[in-house]
Amino acid sequence: DAVSVTRDTTAINSTTTTTTGTVTNSTSTAAAGQNASNTYDYIVVGSGPGGGPLAARLAQAGFSVLLLDAGEDHGTDYTIEIPLLQTAASEYTPITWQFFVNHYADPTVAMEDPNFTWKQPNGTFWVGPNPPAGSTPLGIYYPRASTLGGCAEHNAVVALYPSEDDWDNIAAITGDSSWAASNMRQYWEKLENNQYLTPGTDAASGHGFDGWLDTTLTDLRLILNDKRWLSLLQGTASAMGNTVSTALLNTVSAISAMMITDINTDAPGRDNTVGLFQIPLSVTNTTRARSSQRNLILNTASNRAYKLNVQLSTLVTRLLFDQSAKTPRAIGVQYVTGSHLYRAAPGSENATETGSGSAFARREVIVAGGAFNTPQILKLSGIGPKAELEHWNIPVVLDAPGVGTNMQDRYEVTVTGSLPTNFPSYTGCTFLKTPGDPCFEQWLTNSTDRGIYGTNGVAFGSVFQSSGASPNETDLFVGGLPADFHGYFPGYSAAADVHTFSFLVLKAHSRNNAGTVTLASTDPRDLPLVNFNSFTVGGDLDVQAVYEGVQLARAMFNKTITPDGPFVETFPGPAIQSEDDVKAWIKRSAWGHHASCSVPIGAANDTSAVLDSDFRVKGVDGLRVVDASVFPKIPDFYIVGAVYVISEKAAAVIIEDAQSS
Ligand SMILES: Cc1cc2nc3c(=O)[nH]c(=O)nc-3n(C[C@H](O)[C@H](O)[C@H](O)COP(=O)(O)OP(=O)(O)OC[C@H]3O[C@@H](n4cnc5c(N)ncnc54)[C@H](O)[C@@H]3O)c2cc1C
């Protein structure tokens, strides 16, 4: 087979020591170790939502592409396929990269977070204050996935299209009208395979029906058949001023009528519409299994018509440049091979490098390692703030002060309430922890009703405008799931239960851009230092918005009367009530999981903007970045839809460039 997905990289490694072979290279002189078999038109580093679709599209356009990822392929493992197991997926050892980040640079402030984690002298984690003597502070746990598909393989499958301002803002900053919202929707139409609307109808406008990302909605029978869910729906609606009796919510269509069924509509006014909605999920309707770009990559790689080579278990350590011309040119990458080499991977201390090598790009190298790893790769390769590179004795290829700056995230907190008994719809579910899990059997075998495992557990959500929101946009999401969830710490997914309900309050369009990614060493297997410097910019307005979200979540609980009585708030709990106390608690403990914007696009004359509007690293040739790092401002409520869209846009831009050169 000419194309393959390989975990064993022996074939490629061996070519790095071979000097024979013809190199067709119109753009750079052949570098040491370069030959025909390790040279491609494009090299893409990272198979996540940014890199994966792009690599496939470039191959489909007739180019030879090498797609490298440090992880393995686990996409058919049930923990990943089953949407309800999303939290378990985020801690699934074969794919997880455990980052520990700082919300605050000041350790005293940082350690006030109840999720602050330490490593004990015996090597295990300690979460919270008063760790045993000799423990080392780590920070706040931040799960990432290193695998074929990146974080799309462990995320919560919420698939939202961003707001128009998210795109128009990039067009305004850069002066590049191709970023205008009116032009961007086509990429969503191209990638989506919508399975909840009817093609050709008005509602279908702005949607795609033959793309690679399957989208569907939660099966409303879940709510209909579980009185506790019904009461939560009724309580949520009531807190929003829409009082209905649960007795009338006796059919799926009655439940559906209470909600905006398509939050992803392109109808005017969508971005500032307050309301209750069903959540679009990246899930395949027939199987109720996770959908992502992984299938697109695999289908393209296994198609003999295309030249996509996917090489896994390959950690890129450095980009290679030809510096003979005035402008340095990216010509390839260096890598090491082996499983779980990066020190964020559990067990990395026992991992061994099985090889090392280089690969070369005739046209371009595209970095898509995600918001933490892309700045790290660039800096290790000599592209970053000069002073930082010199501090680490890294030869400067390009002084790019914006690399690893401007990083952004949401602010999220939960309000949780408990009842003595479990949600009825979870009865019997053992989350694959025992053989014969009936909920798993239903998901696997019942083609007409896959049951609770076919959802992500979030049956509906609501969006609001906080008092400080832009008039054009809603900026608060409140939605929940049966789980005792209050942020990320090692083991958080195992600590979940299903007699507690967590209302997640998520602040979109957050204002803080003071986050940084800096090197902690020059070893590419080490993690960088990730500092969010939370609430530094626009903090008061954002705290106020989250506070308003907490009030809403509390009102929703208060209006919810289940057949088993009212929920009793367990977190933040009765002790945290006054506005000052709630706000202090938000500042102490808000988290995020949409890290982005760390290698931003910006205006040509903005020295803090690393990329031009065509994803090119300004000041070098042959190098682009295409992942969550590229946004100047964090988009939307949930980010992956926006990352998929920019991946498709980048493919179009790069193909057009190649065809016109
Ligand atoms: C727990 C959790 C739940 C989430 N849920 C949602 C959700 O429901 N909806 C939503 O919209 N968003 C969600 N997200 C966020 C979303 O999934 C990510 O923002 C998105 O996947 C980012 O895409 P990316 O391409 O930038 O990077 P990633 O998805 O991080 O992919 C980067 C890839 O690059 C590889 N890589 C990195 N460095 C190297 C290197 N040096 N060499 C080789 N390979 C490398 C990694 O192995 C990885 O596979 C969630 C995130 C988390 C953590």
TrEMBL record:
Residues 370-384 form the Glucose-methanol-choline oxidoreductase N-terminal domain. Transmembrane segments: none annotated. InterPro entries: FAD/NAD-bd_sf, GMC_OxRdtase, GMC_OxRdtase_N, GMC_OxRtase_C. It is found in: Secreted. SUPFAM superfamilies: FAD-linked reductases, C-terminal domain, FAD/NAD(P)-binding domain. One of its GO terms (cellular component) is extracellular region. Keywords: FAD, Flavoprotein, Secreted, Signal. The keyword Flavoprotein applies. GO terms for molecular function: flavin adenine dinucleotide binding; pyranose dehydrogenase (acceptor) activity. Its cofactor is FAD. Its EC number is 1.1.99.29. Pfam families: GMC_oxred_C (PF05199), GMC_oxred_N (PF00732), NAD_binding_8 (PF13450). It is an enzyme of class 1 (oxidoreductase). FAD binds at N155, A156, V157, V158, V316. It catalyses: a pyranoside + acceptor = a pyranosid-3-ulose + reduced acceptor; pyranose + acceptor = pyranos-2,3-diulose + reduced acceptor; a pyranoside + acceptor = a pyranosid-3,4-diulose + reduced acceptor; pyranose + acceptor = pyranos-2-ulose + reduced acceptor. Its main location: secreted. Belongs to the GMC oxidoreductase family. Catalyzes the single-oxidation or sequential double oxidation reaction of carbohydrates primarily at carbon-2 and/or carbon-3 with the concomitant reduction of the flavin. Accepts only a narrow range of electron acceptors such as substituted benzoquinones and complexed metal ions and reacts extremely slowly with O(2) as acceptor. Monomer. This is pyranose dehydrogenase (acceptor). It comes from Hypholoma sublateritium (strain FD-334 SS-4).
